[in-house]
# Entry
Amino acid sequence: MRAVIQRVSKAQVSVDGVITGSIGSGLVVLLGLDPDDGDTDLEFMKRKLLNLRIFSDENGKFNLSLSDIGGEILLISQFTLFGDCRKGNRPSFSRAASPELADRLYENLMGLLKGAGIGVASGIFGAHMEVSILNDGPVTLILDSRKRIY
# Structure
């Protein structure tokens, strides 16, 4: 499971000109899913998203988490995070999870985050989406559940 996360002041996603999700201060999470992802990867991602200290305290230091600031998440499925561009000029997406598995895992992560009391907005799985992001910082990080320390 891979995620590109961006700290934002606000963000929104629309499909066919209709806004399907919007947030204020928080994180935009672009989520890519692997065929081998499961519950351990979901728990890792949930824990990291809730607890990463990437929001500034009163001294301007990264000491606060999403939970600390009462922030929200805009969760966007993005299979292209598993695009392989090493060979040729057209990316291969053979390492991305099938749409059925990816949709289930995406919905499960959304449920875990909501269950933790976080406001979660989203796009529409599999749709062509337009995402508007007002970066705060900018702060952009990459998380990969396969590159964690045990």
About this structure: The beta strands are 2-15, 18-23, 26-32, 55-56, 62-64, 72-77, 119-122, 130-144. The mean pLDDT is 95. The radius of gyration is 15 Å.
